[in-house]
């Protein structure tokens, strides 16, 4: 078999655009097909931990990102009942020193703009918008390429082209997202930290977005019945009442913050179980299309970026596509499983109540910041295998 020279990528989100750039650095051309006629990233903010920012820096994007993001000094865990700090992990300059790359927070649209700008300047990348792709066969017919990369998100249509791939399932949690402008923001929102407020069956994350001069707020709570699939839905009165009720026992300042939210959007949180990610010869899933996960470890975007980098490394120069895809899936499956486990642990710890929550708080109070940082060395210190 000849080396891989060109690919078709379905989806121009974070996974697809990063894959196109990573492949171009290896001399592999890509045609990116996106169903939207205009690229507009949904959602609000995201966290780019060092394992992701290192890859983006290697792609030459760090300078552009630094002009848009903030690098918080600390990642804090605080009580949702009292606002008292429970634990702190150093970030900022400490992240660069310990993990060799920055920890940044920014709007999703800013990251997509940086990626899109780089793709538009790359001769080996071609972007086609306004074209809907339903199957891998249809994607392969777009251009005479060697491989189809499905980067079409949690509700991937191309997932059905991979035997053994499993559909997305509702996680039992919903996320509410809204912005709070810096002007008039309550004192509990710190512009120099990423803060997670913890409480029974729910938690709330807040961090600054310098591009919008506002705090990004994500409030997650358990909800047994699944809302309709889809992003960025404005919650109705019943859904808003569920949100208020989920945080009813929290500190009054946090309750006021949630009650005053301006046009909050509710996102049902879906994930994919460990099905197949590649068919062995013509199609591979990456990002949320392969392994969508809940945001309890704040690693969804990072896992997509890692996928893109490793897939490019595995495809570079290979003359055995099946073996390259097998190695990619094997390596990524082990890594993603470990991140999922961390997310499951965080979900348990963040939403703990009663004696378990008291024990959590006691354990955290005994840990020094540097010791807590060491718990993330395996995650944030990750480097893409060649």
Automatic annotation (TrEMBL):
One of its GO terms (molecular function) is monooxygenase activity. Residues 6-339 form the FAD-binding domain. Its cofactor is FAD. Keywords: FAD, Flavoprotein, Monooxygenase, Oxidoreductase. InterPro entries: FAD-bd, FAD-dep_Monooxygenase_BioMet, FAD/NAD-bd_sf. The keyword NAD does not apply. Gene3D superfamilies: FAD/NAD(P)-binding domain (3.50.50.60). SUPFAM superfamilies: FAD-linked reductases, C-terminal domain (SSF54373), FAD/NAD(P)-binding domain (SSF51905). It comes from the Bacteria. The keyword 4Fe-4S does not apply. This is FAD-dependent monooxygenase. It comes from Shinella sedimenti. The lineage of its organism: Bacteria, Pseudomonadati, Pseudomonadota, Alphaproteobacteria, Hyphomicrobiales.
